[in-house]
Design a protein that fits this description.
The complex is a heterodimer of chains A (258) and B (131). With 258 residues, chain A is α+β, with helices and mostly antiparallel strands. Chain A is 56% helix and 9% strand. In chain A, a hairpin with a 4-residue loop joins strand 1 (202-205) and strand 2. In chain B, strands 2-1-3-4-5 form a 5-stranded parallel sheet, sandwiched between helices. Classes of the chains: A alpha+beta (258), B alpha/beta (131). Chains A and B meet through helix 5, helix 9, helix 10 and helix 11 of A and helix 3 and helix 4 of B.
Chain lengths: 258, 131
């Protein structure tokens, strides 16, 4: 989690550290649960159901109330336990996308439940849906959202056989293929929701400086707030320069550095 | 296996794999079946050859240099000329999440390596004849 602390400065440092710690507890809890479930095997056990519901509820609350922090955790790199990290990240991203589609938190909790066990139930949703009793239309939307989150998460993270790709390039490829691969409206929503330059992404600015995105701009997604990384004063957090690109129209993001 | 008479109109297949031996052996085996074969050794070359030759089917490995099979599939689905061409992923990766991802990027089917000629031809016939 080193990357996040690069953002911290001044009086907000303690507050942000505490908040992130809370997000990490939830994120790590989900990870442990997923590892346990997947180690048991291919069948989803009855006793796992209540844990699944609890973790889905926790993730949904985080997605609603602490969106940027939990999303930041989902953007961090991982080098092992690919299946577990990938699964939790897909749940986080699905919720992010789901918030723009579903209007109540129960629907979001159901979405999170399916996302957390999507690898196990992909070919047969009946056993879990016997408990939930969700309509076919709702399930169609749920798996449409999970598909988009799955593709985005996979390509924006490193795998043993390839490097991660820049979110910009991944979203571009996804939107081009949207008509045949995804539910078209969902891929376009992803473009808006996931952001071309997500939190933590490193970019090169038109003035030549390297910067890291620290705050999204929902209204002007191409103009987030960034932290200038070029030559910071060693060990002095207060010397770090935050730059709001919406206030400096002469400077723009030239490229994403992966 | 004998050539399928329903496929005797010289269907074109593009084989994209960085393993030279496998590429050549697939070429020989599939030409024997009456298919016209094009070859590419990585995702980028495969993407270009697909646009150039417009094959009826693409066989694609996942782990390849330059551009992996999953991103190649997604990019092929993003091109007007190639989006309708079925893609058969061939991979040694057995994990279920890779099969799910292949489905999510638009691949038509997934074949785990190593496979027999019969298994491959069964998938090819299914995809080309829609059975």
């Amino acid at each position: 989690m080193v990357e996040y602390y690069e953002f911290l400065r001044g009086e907000n440092a303690y507050f942000d550290k505490v908040i992130l710690k809370n997000e990490e507890t939830c994120y790590q809890g989900c990870l442990s649960f997923i590892k346990k479930v997947y180690l048991v095997g291919d069948a989803f056990k009855e006793e796992d159901f209540s844990s699944l519901y609890e973790f889905a509820k926790q993730l949904t609350n985080k997605a609603i109330y602490h969106e940027s922090k939990i999303n930041l955790l989902a953007s961090f790199p991982y080098n092992n336990d690919y299946q577990a990290y990938h699964t939790v990240n897909v749940a986080v991203l699905s919720l992010e996308l789901g918030k723009s589609i579903f209007s109540n938190s129960d629907e979001l909790v159901n979405l999170a439940m399916f996302a957390l066990c999507h690898i196990l139930v992909w070919e047969d949703v009946k056993p879990i849906n016997l408990r939930l009793g969700l309509s076919e239309d709702f399930l169609k939307s749920v798996f449409g959202i999970i598909s988009v989150a799955d593709v985005y998460e996979t390509f924006t993270h490193t795998r043993p056989y390839r490097d991660k790709l820049a979110p910009y390039d991944v979203l571009k490829a996804m939107v081009s293929a949207a008509d045949v691969v995804f539910m078209p409206s969902l891929a376009r929503k992803a473009l808006k929701v996931f952001s071309l330059y997500p939190l933590g992404s490193v970019v090169r600015l038109s003035n030549g400086e390297i910067a890291q995105v620290t705050k999204l701009n929902r209204k002007y997604p191409l103009r987030p707030e960034v932290l200038i990384l070029t030559e910071p004063e060693a060990g002095n957090l207060d010397s770090l320069k935050i730059f709001d690109l919406s206030e400096h129209l002469e400077v723009y993001i030239k490229e994403t550095k992966v | 296996m004998r050539p399928n008479p329903k496929l005797n109109n010289k269907k074109k297949i593009l084989v994209v794999d960085d393993d030279d031996n496998l590429r050549q052996s697939l070429k020989a085996g599939l030409e024997e079946q009456g298919f016209k074969i094009f070859l590419a050794s990585d995702g980028e070359e495969g993407f270009e050859k697909a646009k150039e030759n417009l094959p009826d089917l693409i066989l694609l490995n996942i782990m390849m240099p330059k551009m992996d099979g999953m991103m190649t599939t997604l990019k092929l689905k993003g091109e007007k000329e190639t989006r309708h061409i079925p893609v058969l992923i061939m991979s040694g990766i057995r994990e279920k999440e890779e099969r799910i991802l292949s489905h999510n990027v638009g691949a038509a089917d997934y074949l785990i390596k190593p496979f027999t000629t019969e298994q491959l031809l069964e998938k090819i016939h299914k995809l080309l004849l829609g059975k």
